[in-house]
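S2.1 Query sequence (Flippase-like domain-containing protein)
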Amino acid sequence: MNQKTKKHLVTGIKLAISLVLIYYVFFVKLHIFDILDNYKNANWFYIFLAVLLFIASQALSVFRLDYYFRDINLDLSYRSNIRLYFLGMFYNTFVPGGIGGDAYKVYILNKNYKNGLKQISQSVFLDKIIGLFAMILIIIFLVYLSNLTDYPIIQYSALISSLIGFIAVPYLLGLFFPIHKKTFFNSMIYSIVLQLIQVGMLYFVLEGLNIHPDNFSIYLLIFLVSGILSIISFSGFGIREIVFMYAAHRFNFDETLATSAAFIFSIITITVSFIGIIYLFKGVKVEEKKKNTKISF
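Output structure tokens follow.
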């Protein structure tokens, strides 16, 4: 089985998972019209603020990735970086089975600059890895903050493990990838800031749907867990909804409202990703200091 066939197969599996889960959530466990009813009385100003925060978080992600590029002497302008970033989001969301957004970014940069395919690929990969570790560590911290267990030893172990992890993870990654040693610490700080922006996004979505949980940190925990699990579905559709639905049942939230919030996150993601279509047709002007190269598709 060649690489292209494998990619089509993986995408097909993800799409199938999303379709099955969406059908199960919206037509078996809940009713889609009950979900839609929650949007009739929504405060769309708050939802709009959530969209702005999501865009801000994606724009800020470009700064984090730029640290890794500078380590390999690839000094792209911020404008070039953000255009490539949103084009990558578009590819990831709307081109199933095709080249992935990150792979496309690596291809373009390797084609125009002689920094080495391995170094560019590694930079993009490590940017994703540090973001993933940050999410996992915040989830562990939220286990403490949310009082999910009556056992103090588990709560305080979660607190200590997360705090140590925020320092240990960048340090250990620096041992394996010394060229990015200093970058890992800066990148971890950026990742924490990005997650704080996501907290604001979650808050505004819940406010927009008139959801006022007694324990906001549990909603945040559910949100982050669904974000990690979204990699096994198509753009997170289905996974977010089923995680929120079952978590709502577990923590005595309103299942329909919680699922409505999850679906809003999915819609925001796919809507913002569509911005990348601008650069699909315009092309991306890549600038590196005095270098100015027009990329054609």
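Residues 291-297 have pLDDT under 50 and may be disordered. The CA atoms of residues 57 and 193 lie 9 Å apart.
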